[in-house]
C-alpha cells in the first residue's frame, strides 16, 4: 500500500513535471502570441478609438452646425408664418374698411344728389323754369318800385289837377252873381217893356179905331215881354241849381284836395325799404347760388379724387396677396429643408434653392404702379 | 335707351367705384365677379361695352376676351381692360386676344366717362 502510494506520488510528480514542461513550452508561446495579439488588438483598438474620437468630434461639429441651421430655418418659418398672418389681417381689415368706406361713399353720393335736387327746387322759381327764384324776386321788386313810383306821381299830379280844377270851378262860381245880375237887368227891361206895352195899349184904345192895329202890336210886345221874363226866370232857376251843384262839388273836391298826401309818401318810403331788402336778399341769394354752383364743381372733383383713392384697396390687396404667396413659397421650401438630413441636403439642397429663385423668374407682382395718380389709357 | 355696360372685377371696391361713376352718367350697369360669371351673363344678355380686370379667380380677363371674341354677339363689342398690370407684354397679349384698349388702375372717373363715351360713340 505504501509502495503503491509511492508510485502514484511519483507518477503525479512526473505528470506534473510533464504538464509543467508542456505548459512552459506550448502554452507559454501560445500565451505570448495571444498576449502579443491581444496587445496588437489593444493597440489597434486604441488607435481606432483615437481615430473614432477625432471623427466623432468633427461629426459633432457638423451636427451642431446643421442643428443651428435647422433652428434658423424653424425660426425663419415661424417669422414667415407671422408675416403671412399679419398680411392676412391687414387684408381683412382693409377689405372691411374699404367696404364700409364704399357704402358710406354711396350713401353720401345719394344724399348729395337729393340735396342738390332740393336746392335746385328751392332756388328755381318753378319746376321747369330756368330762371332762379332770387332773380324773379329782384325783377318783381324793381317792377313794384317803378309801379309805385308812377302811382305816387300820378296821385300827386291828380291832386295838383284837382286843386286847379277847384280854382276854375271857383271862377265859374264867382261869375254866377254877374250872370244873375244880368238876368235881373233883363227882368227889369222886361218889366219896363211890359209897362210900355200897357201904356201903348191904353193909348191905342184912346185912339179908337185908328189905334186898333197899334193895340195888337202893344199886346204882342207885352206877350214878348212876359215870355222874356219867363225865360229869365227859368235861366235864373237853372243858374241857382248850377250854383248849388257847384257849391256841393266844391265841397267834395275841396275835401278830396285837402286830404293829406304825406301818408302815401310815408308808405312809399316803407315799401321802398322793404323792396330794397328784397333786392339785397335776392342779390345775396344770387351770390349763394353762384357759390353753390362752384361748390358743385368742387364736389365733382372731390368725388373723382375719392373714387380714385378708394381703388387703393384693390391695388394693395393684389400686391399683398402676391407678397403672401411669395412668403408661402419660401416657407414651403424652408419646411422641405427642415425634413432633410445633412447628407440629403447635400444632394437636394441646390434644387430647393433653385425652386425659391424659380418663382421670382416665373411670377411677377401684378401691381406695377406705386402711386395713386390715375393710370395711363391706351386704345388699340 | 341708355347703353348697357358690364363690369368684371373680383374687387368689390372697384366694382362699386366703376358702378358709381357710370351710373352718374345714366348708363345701365351689370356686375360680374370674374370671367366665368361674365361669360355666363353674356350667354343670355347683350352688352354695349365691357370693362374687365385681368387677374381674377376662375377666369382671367384675357381668357374672357378670347372667349367673347369667339361669340358672334361680342365680336365687335368694345372691351377695355382695367387692371393693375401695366407691362408691355401684357398689353401685347391683350391686343392679340382682341381687347379694344387698356386702362391702368387707378382710374380717374372723368377719364373713364370720356373713354366710355368715345368707344360707345
TrEMBL record, chain A:
Pfam families: MCPsignal. It is found in: Membrane. PROSITE patterns: CHEMOTAXIS_TRANSDUC_2. Signal peptide: none annotated. This is Methyl-accepting chemotaxis sensory transducer. It comes from the Bacteria. Residues 232-259 form a coiled coil. Belongs to the methyl-accepting chemotaxis (MCP) protein family. The lineage of its organism: Bacteria, Pseudomonadati, Pseudomonadota, Gammaproteobacteria, Alteromonadales. The chain crosses the membrane at residues 6-39. Keywords: Coiled coil, Membrane, Transducer, Transmembrane, Transmembrane helix. Residues 134-314 form the Methyl-accepting transducer domain. It comes from Shewanella decolorationis S12.
TrEMBL record, chain B:
It comes from the Bacteria. Pfam families: Response_reg. The modification 4-aspartylphosphate is found at residue 53. Residues 4-120 form the Response regulatory domain. Keywords: Phosphoprotein. SUPFAM superfamilies: CheY-like. This is Response regulator receiver protein. It comes from Shewanella decolorationis S12. The lineage of its organism: Bacteria, Pseudomonadati, Pseudomonadota, Gammaproteobacteria, Alteromonadales. The gene is cheY-3.
